TrEMBL record:
Source species, domain of life: Bacteria
InterPro entries, per database record: BCCT_transptr
Topology in the lipid bilayer: Multi-pass membrane protein
Record-linked Pfam families: BCCT (PF02028)
Family: Belongs to the BCCT transporter (TC 2.A.15) family.
Gene Ontology cellular component terms for the protein in this record: plasma membrane
Protein source organism: Terrihalobacillus insolitus
Chief place of localization: membrane
Subcellular location: Cell membrane
Any one Gene Ontology molecular-function term assigned to this protein's record: transmembrane transporter activity
Protein name: BCCT family transporter
Bilayer-crossing regions: 12-29, 49-67, 87-113, 133-159, 191-214, 226-248, 260-280, 315-333, 345-370, 390-416, 445-464, 470-493
Length: 498
């Protein structure tokens, strides 16, 4: 226990801020919703372009590192074999980094772009429809996963090469902060990381749980209410608390493997029983569009047209990836022992992007097919009843509809659990002074239940914009943290090579 003693100041500070934030939303829901709306507009106007450049520069930086001599650095002893098989490694990093959000947006994101196309395209035009699918894939592609991977570089180097048994963001910033990593500045960095993760987790759960509730309503007829959302949240919390209590090997790894097998099953069923040729053709077309316009997509902010499209979507997405990045970086670093830095970068960016694209290509194009062929009025359902209802209606059109909806609900619950068992695992790691093996069990379990507080509050006030705003706010300090982590990595490798 002495080796895994708690960092009580970080632990208690985070609890105080978490409780205060959640209580404020519960006690003053209308005021909280108005404040979030006003803050959203202000932040997007003032700092939105910063998020855009963070994404693009992260990708450029990682390409350079992977191609340089630093890419050959082994994370661990020279002859050490990777701790996890390639399949389990990919499964864990993908499930930690995405969660059920990939099912939500993969199925329905195109509908928002169909109704409000980018580039001032005419709604319903051929080009607008093509971009409606491609743009969602861009938002979950290489740039997004580069943001995730960047923090893993200094963390993995310190943990596996320098063998420092500390999984803290402040520790990874030590090459820049020096003695300040142990003082007030370091505590603030760790606190901002934890609060950002808790806020982003609330956003993810706030989006995904209504989707699961809509599936349960379709199967059982139980009315979708706030109390049903809370019941689902409790169920998910119990699942990922058991997983994180079991540890990395016995819990998180096994649940991630199961999740990937279920996801592959669902995608294969949709691909083979749905409009296969249409899905393949639209997917190929979308890859071509993204490849051809990749540089433009990474820098389009629409200063003249001022359509608001990049602000509403790309900047929100980049903020989402940024706020999760330190957490995912910690986790990628933890599970990548035995791999080279190049393997870690290329594997995470390529497999992460490909995994996300499968959902957008198969589920997204399937639902688009239903819209274009007047089988299901997907966009009309989104406008009238919301995205969760539209998603479940799409899945219900498959052969054995009720069975497929049931599989969809189970997959969504497990996807949520695989994200939040790793979230609570890393929160426990950050609130300990040292981590030898797994963090203390009671600490892991505590954070599993603490993660349920923000979504409980955010679902209470509801609304997609409120959820987006929380992510955009939480991402702001994470931008500074990402810069410090990139600088720390360069100092570390240059000092060791010189």
């Amino acid at each position: 226990m002495k080796k895994n003693r708690l960092d009580w100041p970080s632990f208690l500070l985070c609890i105080i801020f978490l409780t205060a934030m959640s209580l404020s939303i519960f006690l003053f829901p209308n005021e909280a919703a108005k404040w979030l709306a006003a803050t959203h507009d202000t932040l997007i106007e003032q700092v939105g372009i910063v998020y855009l450049w963070v994404g693009f520069l992260s990708l450029i930086f990682l390409v350079w590192v992977a191609a340089s001599r630093y890419g050959k650095i082994k994370l661990g002893p020279k002859n050490y074999r990777p701790t996890f098989s390639t399949f389990s490694w990919i499964a864990m990093l993908f499930c930690a980094g995405i969660g059920s959000g990939v099912i939500y947006w993969g199925t329905i994101e195109w509908a928002y772009y169909y109704l409000g196309p980018p580039f001032s395209l005419t709604q319903g035009s051929v080009r607008a429809i093509e971009w409606s699918v491609a743009y969602g894939m861009f938002h979950t592609g290489p740039t997004a996963w580069a943001i995730y991977t960047l923090p893993a570089l200094p963390i993995a180097y310190l943990y596996h090469v320098k063998r420092r048994p500390v999984l803290k963001i402040s520790e990874a910033c030590r090459p820049v902060l020096n003695k300040y990593a142990d003082g007030f500045v370091g505590k603030i960095i760790d606190l901002l990381f934890m609060l950002g993760l808790l806020g982003a987790s609330g956003t993810t759960l706030g989006l995904s749980i209504p989707m699961i509730a809509a599936g349960i309503h379709k199967i059982t007829g139980i009315e979708h209410t706030y109390w049903l959302d809370l019941l689902i949240l409790l169920l998910c919390t119990l699942i990922f608390s058991i997983s994180v209590y079991s540890g990395l090997e016995k819990g998180i790894k096994k649940l991630s493997d199961i999740n990937v097998y279920l996801a592959i099953t669902l995608l294969l069923v949709v691909l083979l029983l749905g409009p296969t040729i249409f899905i393949l053709e639209m997917s190929t077309n979308s890859i071509g569009l993204i490849t051809q316009h990749f540089l433009y997509l990474n820098t389009w902010i629409d200063p003249i047209g001022q359509s608001g499209f990049p602000e509403k979507w790309t900047l929100f997405y980049w903020a989402w990836w940024i706020v999760y990045a330190p957490f995912i970086g910690l986790f990628i670093a933890k599970i990548s022992k035995g791999r080279t830095i190049r393997e870690m970068i290329v594997g995470t960016v390529l497999f992460g992007s490909f995994g996300c694209w499968l959902f957008f290509m198969i589920l997204g194009n399937f639902s688009l097919y239903l819209e274009l062929n007047d089988i299901v009025p997907v966009t009309a359902i989104v406008q009238q009843f919301g995205a969760p209802e539209a998603i479940v209606t799409v899945i219900d059109t498959l052969p054995f509809g009720s069975l497929m909806v049931f599989l969809f609900v189970i997959l969504s619950i497990i996807f949520l659990s695989t994200t939040f068992d790793t979230s609570s695992y890393m929160l426990a790691a950050v609130t300990q002074k040292e981590v030898h093996g797994d963090p203390v069990r009671w600490n892991r379990l505590f954070w599993a239940f603490a993660l349920a507080l923000p979504p409980t509050a955010l679902m209470f006030i509801g609304g997609l914009e409120s959820l987006q705003t929380v992510t955009i706010i939480a991402a702001l300090p994470s931008v500074v943290i990402l810069f410090l982590l990139a600088l720390s990595f360069m100092r570390l490798v240059r000092e060791d090579k010189d």
